[in-house]
Amino acid sequence: MVARDSIWIAFLIAVLNDLEVLATDIGNTYINADVHEKLYFVAGDEFGNVNKGKNVIITKALYGLKSSGATWRAHLAEALHGLGYKSTLADPDVRICPEVKP
Fold first, then answer.
1. How many structural domains are present in the chain?
2. Structural domain contains residue 102
3. 101: in domain
4. Residue 45 located in a structural domain
5. Which pLDDT band, with edges at 50, 70 and 90, does 87 fall under?
């Protein structure tokens, strides 16, 4: 979650330098990130009689896991870094991509 003050500062810098601003809200975020721990649970009735009582391995971050937020944040940071975006010193959740204007 980006701080409100960071957004205001980013918009101010963009306006003063005639920069394009891109923003997004990502839905269903956690299902994109792989978990880094070994997590499992025992399947209940909702998994059917064939699977009931078997161990189920969790491979994707799920809402409700304590580590899911950090896992998703690391996954997003890695993806944005691969696209050339870098964290700002003021707020690591605000990212910029150097670009040359014509």
1. 1
2. no
3. no
4. yes
5. confident
* Contact (CB, 8 A) for 95 and 81: no
Q: For the segment 23-79, what is each residue's pLDDT rounded down to a tens digit?
A: 777 766 666 677 777 888 899 999 999 999 999 888 877 777 777 778 888 888 888
How many Cα atoms occupy the beta-carbon half-sphere of 83 within 13 Å?
11
> Which residue segment(s) compose the domain that 74 sits in?
4-96
pLDDT of residue 6: 81
Global pTM reads 0.61
Sign of the dihedral through C-alpha 55, 60, 61, 63: negative
